[in-house]
Amino acid sequence: MDKLVTIATFDFPAEAQTIKLLLEEQGIEVFLADDSLVGMNWFLANAVGGAKLRVLESYAERARQFVEEYRQTSRQSHEFELPAVDFDCEECGHALTFPGQRRGGVETCPHCNQYVDVPE
Ligand SMILES: [Zn+2]
Predict the structure, then answer these.
(1) What pLDDT is attached to residue 49?
(2) Residues 83, 44: contact at Cβ < 8 Å?
């Protein structure tokens, strides 16, 4: 009996769901862990390590490769569509930079740990 291995973690459950569907199309069974928790409290994603994507050990290598390729492709398209966003924290005034896909979201300031609204 194969055991389940975690091959990737995701900050965003939506991304994990997308990968899950793509892998299942290839006949690889996928199990998501911590998914609902992250969905309800997605700003806690880092605290719980994000949504974990698990597959049976015999598929792990294939699935890992697939995720790697998917991430490279999506990173390129994100960079193209959404340049990184720079702004100053409202609480402590530190200059912050977040990846473009965080635009319009809520992040935690690494300097004062307050929640900050990322501009669109
Ligand atoms: Zn701050």
Answers:
(1) 59
(2) no
